[in-house]
Amino acid sequence: MLYIFYGPDDFSIREELEKLRASLQDDMLPTNTTLFEGNQANAQEIANACETIPFLGQYRLVIVYDLLRRFEASTRNKAESGAGLGPWQQLAERVANFPPTAVLVLVDSDISPTNALLRALSPHAEVKQFRPLRASLLPGWIQRRASEKDMQLSPQAIQLLAANYGSNLWALSNELEKLANYATGRRVEEEDVRTLMAAAEINVFALVDAVVEGRESAALQFLRRLVAAGMESPHLLALIIRQYRLLLLAKDGQASGVNSQEMGRRLGTTSDFLLQKVMEQSSRYTQSQLREAYKRLLEADLAIKRGRQEEELALELLIADLIRQRRRELARRPA
């Protein structure tokens, strides 16, 4: 089975990936999951992973992040932009003959319909594109999300959330988590939304910024306060992973010389402020540093899902280690 999930709405992509994991109904799936970073993976090792028999389980899940982006026409590597697929053509041909135990998922950002690898793989895949949610659909999304949490929201509360957060589903999901804990079973009113919006000191995005910018004390303080306020560690880790993925996209875009409009499309934002912020943060890292940090975050996410580590402690240790490793790298730079 081959799935291709792509588009700027990475929140919905992550949800779809979790839904796929759950649908496989395999207790050994975490043990039989392999992650690849598309910038570093090659066709042979992906195929080998798919053809490996799962250990005491029904499926081998192989997830590859940001592979299709290598084949965009804007990339400088013409061998991967449509002039030829090279060894990746063999992967497209082998997909149909993968064993029934293999589940290959390609997860990517916004890519064009003319993407060479996408076109080669699409006949063998279930392809889903995730676009930003239109403004007219936001109230319905908020209502459904609230219902899943057994929450009731007034129409005014829903409209205020939609107006303030737009199609940023990460922020909306975060606010609903906080509101569920704040309202403790009663209907959420507009005033509740305004109260929590004003409580800027408990801000998940401040946590993410503190991690990326290497402010260890602030990052751990934000983490503990958010957990105390009812936020779950896996959700916080997902947001940190997302930010490092955006930093990687920005770094790769800079290396490819893309303009700001194209960069915004890749990052899934039309906000100049957010775009400049990601660009500034990514400039503090090299590509290899970002890739290593991103790889470690994905591995930690998988370890938590496998139950190898206690969630909150694992996230604290990971954040501290990421920041301290970054400090050691900076200290080794020549003056």
Could you give the count of β-strands?
5
Order of helices and strands: EHEHEHEHEHHHHHHHHHHH
At the fourth level of CATH, the homologous superfamily of the largest domain is P-loop containing nucleotide triphosphate hydrolases
CATH class of the largest domain: Alpha Beta
- Determine the structural class based on helices, strands and strand pairing: alpha/beta
Number of helices: 15
Mean of the pLDDT scores? 83
The total domain count is: 3
SSE topology:
Blueprint: E1 2-6, H1 10-24, E2 33-37, H2 43-51, E3 60-65, H3 87-94, E4 102-108, H4 116-121, E5 126-129, H5 138-148, H6 155-165, H7 169-183, H8 190-198, H9 204-212, H10 216-228, H11 233-256, H12 260-267, H13 272-282, H14 287-305, H15 311-332
Parallel strand pairs: 1-4, 1-5, 2-3, 3-4
Helix pairs in contact: 2-3, 5-6, 6-8, 7-8, 9-10, 9-11, 10-15, 11-12, 11-13, 11-14, 14-15
